[in-house]
Each structure stands twice: as structure tokens, then as C-alpha cells.
Amino acid sequence: MVHDxxxxxxxxxxxxxxxxxxxxxxxxxWTGIRAVHESGLLESTVATRYGGQGATLADTAHVLAALGxxxxxxxxxxxxxxxxxxxxxxxxxxxxxxxxxxLAEAKQRPLLLNAARVEPELGSPARGGLPATLARRTKTxxxxxxxxxxxxxxxxxxxxxxxxxxxxxxxRVGTFVVPNGLPGIKVIENWQSLxxxxxxxxxxxxxxxxxxxxxxxxxxxxxxxxxxxxxxxAITLALTALYLGVAEAAQATFIxxxxxxxxxxxxxxxxxxxxxxxxxxxxxxxxSGARQIIFGTLDNKNGDAESFVRARLLxxxxxxxxVQIAVRGIGNPGLGSDLGLERHFRDxxxxxxxxxxxxTSISLLGRAAFDRWNRQEAAIPPxxxxxxxxxx
Length: 392
Description:
Number of strands: 8
Largest sheet: 8 strands, mixed
CATH topology of the largest domain: Butyryl-CoA Dehydrogenase, subunit A, domain 3
Strand content: 5-15%
CATH superfamily of the largest domain: Butyryl-CoA Dehydrogenase, subunit A, domain 3
Order of helices and strands: HHHHHEEEEEEEEHHHHHH
Distance between the termini: 71 Å
Structural class: alpha+beta
CATH class of the largest domain: Mainly Alpha
Number of domains: 3
């Protein structure tokens, strides 16, 4: 790990204190975001060549698990920026001057970046298709017009990374770096989700938003612009660690309740009953097992895309089941907002909603299994001159 454990614990404490109010209001969680910024975590994956810590994907997963215990909405908003820096460390696809300018900004305030890719008509790019959002050439740069959905952290972002096609002939597709607050940007407040309420994942409309010519990444032919779910599998698994934190927070709430609840007819804490010991064991099996799956797979240097996808699905399902067991085991108090378990239950429902969604991931595994079988069949030479000998 590249981060100070004590500082991380203090950041998590701040997030946990602010999380209930952020969940209730659905307002942008500035208290938690500022705490993450002040701890240096938002820039933890900046490459060493830029003066950063150079944290790895596995390091990031550990950080996200911790932040998820405090406030998963803050963790998700933070993750988008952390992953952006991680991608730049690996690919160097940002214009150098632009990237260094953003890093300078990050010393003064939280630098928050997130990709704006999903569209009302297109849906998730993980399912294929190209953006309708248009980037039109101007004398000084680009003009961006279109509408994006589920833009996590919309109000607090410093920059949108907008996926769009150009008006060139032939057209190209790329990501355009759009500073927030420019004329023509409108946040449409329509995020009314069951959980992860403080993420503020609203729609954003761009109407002839002017940006400089250098604010563009990865302009390519549309034929190679499709989202590669296999290439992003490891990052998607690391994101699941955020929900490991949610489940661990729920587990801690369950255990505390079991030790503090002393029914008058029982005379001792329900933690001493066989039923709650068994429930605790079931919860621990699922959550600790998910932790092993996530970090064991991320630590495997020889892991392929299928192993990351498989680990994400297994861990996500286990985490969701574990929190459900905790709520069901406690009963009515578990459904009330006072205990906090109800919030964890709502938040954990998002664990497998992120692209690629569960059905797309399952299809990827199914096709890979068919491909393996076909390769194995092709490698087996046909049986020549096979004779069947009949016996009496």
C-alpha cells in the first residue's frame, strides 16, 4: 500500500459521519469529497513521472473498500477520478500540457473527472453502439452538443469527459474534456435512485459548449471506438471493492446490534444465541469470501479478462446476499433508518449495475466457454480407421 493507514482511517471516519445526511438530502457530498481530497487519495494513482505516488489498481481497490465503508457515494465519485489518473499512468493519452494544468488545479481544490458516455437513445456503450453527441469544429476548437445520462457527481465535477463523434468526413469518435460551468451546460436533476443517492448521477445536457482544440483524447475511426468490456474487466472488479466496504459496514452494524440488543425475556445479548451466531457465520462466509475473491484475483498477475469478470460476479452476488441476510436476521429494526442497515441494503443493490451489467458479463463468460470448447475440439485429430470389434 502507498497510503498512510491512519490518514485513511480518519478519512473514512469523516465520510461515515456525513453519509446519513448526504443520503437523506441527495445533495452533492462536499464534506466527504473534501476529506478525500485533503488526504491526497484523489491523486494517489498519478504516475511517478508526474510527481505522483503511482498507486496500482490493487492499491486502489483497498482504498475504495475503505471509502465504501464510510460513504459509497463519495467512494464512487472519487473512483472515477482515481481511475482516470490510473489510465493516464498506463497510456499517456492526455495532451501533456492539459494534464499537467489539471494536476496544478488539484493542489488548490478537489479535481473531479468523470466520463459522460451513456445516452438516452444509446443506453450503455457496454452493449455496443456509437454516441449521438456531436463535436463540431470551430475556429478555436470544438463545440459539443448532446445529452448524457447517469453522470455520477454531475454537480461537483470539475470536468466532464464527454464521448462524442465529430462532424468531420469521415467522422471520428473520441473523448472531449469539457470544464464544468461553461455556458450551454445544464444539469437535469432526475437522479432518484433507491440507493447511492448522494452520487447525484443526473443527466447533463450540452448545447454548443465551446472548448479549446487541445481538449480531446483518443480520436479514432468509429470502427475501433466500441467499448471493450474485456479490457475494462480488471477496473470493474476493483470498483466492486467499493461495495465490499458497504457490506463490511453492514456486517459491523449487525454485530453491534447483536451485542447491544438484550431482550427482557432473554436476559442476555442476542449475540449469544445459536441463531445469531449462525447468521453471523453466514454473513462472514459471504463477505470474507468476497474479499478473498476480489483481492486474490487482482493480485494474480496472470489473470485474464474472464477471471476478472467471473470474480466480479461471484463477489457482487455474495455481497448482496450477505447484506440481505443481515437485514432479514435483525427484522424490523434493520428496516429503520436509525440503525443505518437500511441504507447499506439500498446501496448494495447497485453492486452489479455498473457497466458491463450482469447479463452482458454472463454472456461474455458464455461465449468464452464456447470458444474454449471449439478450440479444444479443433485440436483433437479425427479418429482414422476406427473399427468396432463385436464381442460374443
